[in-house]
Amino acid sequence: MTNQLNQVLLRQEIQVGANLDAWLANGGGAGLQNALEAPEAIVKTIEAADLRGMGGAGFPTFRKWQFVMAEQAEDKYLICNGNEDEPGTFKDRLLLEKTPHQIIEGALITALATGVNHLILYINPHQNKAVEAARQAVAQWHVHPLFTAVAEALGRPLTLRVFLSSGLYIGGEETAAISSIEGGFPFPKQKPPYPAQHGIHGQPTLINNVETLAHVTHIVNHGPEWYHDLGVGQAHGTKIYSLSGDVLRPGVYELPMGTSLRDLVFEYGGGMLAGKEFKAVFTGGPSNTLLTKEDLDVALDWDSVRARRSRLGTGAMIVISVGTGIVKRVTEYIDFFADSSCGQCPPCKIGTRQISKVLRKIDTGRGRRAELDHLYNLGKLLPGSGRCALVDGAVTVLNSSLDKFMAEYEAHLIDR
Ligand SMILES: Cc1cc2nc3c(=O)[nH]c(=O)nc-3n(C[C@H](O)[C@H](O)[C@H](O)COP(=O)(O)O)c2cc1C
Ligand code: SF4
Asked: Mean pLDDT per 10-residue run, the chain (416 residues)?
C-alpha cells in the first residue's frame, strides 16, 4: 500500500446525520464563514484546487460556475444532483444520509460564488434515509443565522428545498432533471441552449453532483494547498469510490486522489473473493470503460486514467474475476441502458435494443463474424446520435469491451 487513508468527506466525526449543531461543533460552518468574508475569492480557490465534477464527466467545477455567473437574471438555480441510479454507484446516498450539512454548506458557498439563489437538493426517492436526513437538515438551515447571512449577502430571496426526482436513471441527466423540476417527465432536452443559459423556467441553472458540492465546503474551509496535499503525487484531493463485485470488502471508500487501482482492489477492498483471479474492472460504472490486469498500477486520478483511454467517472468500480463472461456482463448493462432510454431519439431507442439482441446471440453461441462486425459498426455510428449522453455511455462500455476482450467475443462465434 502506498497511500495513507486520508478521509475528509467520510471522516467519522462529521457523520452526524441531520444534526446541524453537531456539524457546526465539528468544524462545519468555517468554509461558509470564509465565503461570506470574501465571496469574490471563492471561484479562484476552487480553480486553484482543480476540483472537477464527481457526477461522471469530471468537468472543471470553476468553469461550469463561470457559465452561470456570466448570465444576468434575477433568479438563478442550483440543482444538487443526488439522483444516483446507475448500477454500481452508491456514494451520494451515503453522503446525504451521514453528512447532509457539508453538501448544503457547499451549496450555500456556491450561491455566494455564483449568485444562484434557488438551491434544490434533487434526490432519488428510493433512497429513503437520504431523503429524510436532507429534509431535516434543510429545516434546520432555514432558521439558522448563517442562512440569513447568505441571503443578505446575495441581496435576493434565497430558497433551499428538497425535490424528489422520478427515481429513474435518465432523471440524473442535467436537462432531464430540469424537466422533472418543472413538473414534467424527465425527458432530456436538446442542447444548446445549455442549462447555464436556459434552465429551470428559462432561468440560468447550475447543476453539480452531491460529492462535488461536499468537496467545495472543505476546500473553501482549508484552502487549495491543503487540498493538493491530500492527493498522491500530482493529483489533488480525495475521491469517493463505490467498490463492488468480486472483492472481499465491497463498500464506499474515500481515498487520496492518485491511489492506485491495485491498492483500491487488493488493499482497501481486501483483494479478490476466495479463489478468484482478477480479470477487469468497470471503471466509473457501466457507462464507462474497462481497465484490466495490465492497468492495475494506474494512479486513479483524472489524467492518469484518461491516459489509459478510460475515465474515472463517478468513481464506481465494479470488479470482475476470471470466469465472469464479458459478453454476458456487457449484455446486462446494455439491457439496463435500453430499459432506461426515454425513447425520444430513434438511434438510442432502437440502437441499444439492437446491440442487446446481437450481444445475446453472440453470448449464447449463435453469433457469426458478420454480427460482430455489426456491433463494431454500431459502436462507431451511435455516439453523439442522441439528445443526451445515455446512448454514448452504452456504446462506450460496448466499445471498450470489444477493444480489450475481442478474443473472448471471437471465441463465442460459430464461424470463428
Ligand atoms: C443518463 C445520465 C444520467 C446521469 N445521472 C447522474 C446522477 O445520477 N447524478 C449526477 O450527479 N450526475 C448524473 N449525470 C451527469 C449530469 O448530467 C451532470 O453532468 C452532473 O450532475 C454534473 O455535476 P458535476 O459537474 O458536479 O459532476 C447523468 C448523466 C447522464 C447522461
Ligand atoms: S439519447 Fe436516449 S435517453 Fe437521451 S434523450 Fe435520446 S432517447 Fe432519451
From this structure: 67 95 97 98 97 94 98 97 96 97 98 98 98 98 98 97 98 98 97 97 98 98 97 93 97 96 97 94 93 96 92 95 97 97 97 97 96 96 96 97 96 92
Half-sphere exposure at residue 50, Cβ-oriented, CA atoms within 13 angstroms = 17
Say yes or no: CB of residue 211 within 6 Å of ligand 1. Answer: no
- Nearest CA, atom 1, ligand 2: 386
Walk me through the domains of the chain, giving residue ranges and CATH numbers.
Answer: 12-227 (3.40.50.11540), 231-321 (3.10.20.600), 326-411 (1.20.1440.230)
Is 127's C-beta closer than 6 angstroms to any atom of ligand 1?
Answer: no
Q: Which atom of ligand 1 is nearest to the CA of 392?
A: 31
Q: Are strands 159-164 and 118-123 parallel, antiparallel or unpaired?
A: parallel
User: Which residue has its alpha carbon closest to ligand 1 atom 29?
Assistant: 173
Distance from Cα 55 to the centre of ligand 1, integer Å: 5
Nearest CA to ligand 1 atom 20: 55
